[in-house]
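Thread title: Can someone regenerate the structure for this chain?

I was given the following input by a collaborator and told the matching structure tokens would be attached. They weren't. Posting the sequence so someone can regenerate them.
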Amino acid sequence: PEGERCALEHGGAAPVIVEPDADIDDALPLPAKGGVYPAGQVCVSVRRIFVHADIVERFSNKIERAHV
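Best answer:
Regenerated them for you:
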């Protein structure tokens, strides 16, 4: 047969939505790790985090200090 076989990723936006009633301490490790695993080079890596305005400052402060 002619040609080469290959696998292509479709890419994606991979959003995370954080609602105001979220338990930030419980939820935080997942998007923090998801943004860097594995080096952000797979289509399921977290690309965007949408945080409700009521908790965005608290969430931002915590994710900034997160140890992944």
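The chain has a mean pLDDT of 81.
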